[in-house]
Amino acid sequence: xxxxxxxxxxxxxxxxxxxxxxxxxxxxxxxxxxxxxxxxxxxxxxxxxxxxxxxxxxxxxxxxxxxxxxxxxxxxxxxxxxxxxxxxxxxxxxxxxxxxxxxxxxxxxxxxxxxxxxxxxxxxxxxxxxxxxxxxxxxxxxxxxxxxxxxxxxxxxxxxxxxxxxx
Length: 167
Fold this sequence. Notes:
Blueprint: H1 2-24, H2 30-36, E1 41-42, H3 51-57, E2 59-60, H4 62-75, E3 80-87, E4 91-97, E5 102-104, E6 115-117, H5 122-133, E7 137-146, E8 149-156
Parallel strand pairs: 1-2
Antiparallel strand pairs: 3-4, 3-7, 4-5, 5-6, 7-8
Helix pairs in contact: 1-3
């Protein structure tokens, strides 16, 4: 039993050290951050993982990544916002980074140019995300977490004249 508790304690320290190491990298940029996750496996989850669990498991989905990216980059002085895009058949979360003039999307973590350029408006982020998924967007919102519960602000709906058609 003591051996098991010791192993669990060591694993917890290693997880915290990995997050701390990522947060303290002096050369960390939004592009270097997203590239750090290029070998992580996509795994859709029902709940958002805390950053330590996401790092330990090396698997997760868009909201796991976006939450961690926003937390780490904000600690480094970047201006970030979490954005949720609700489409006809999917919901997706990205992390917009003002200084990068674009957003970090877990789907682009292994791309040659992983930052999706954007003017930062919610409609622009939604349009670019919806085009990638070939799925029209229905609503987009900036949000943050309070006690692991998302709190939404600045909800935007597409104008009828901007309705998207994907075939």
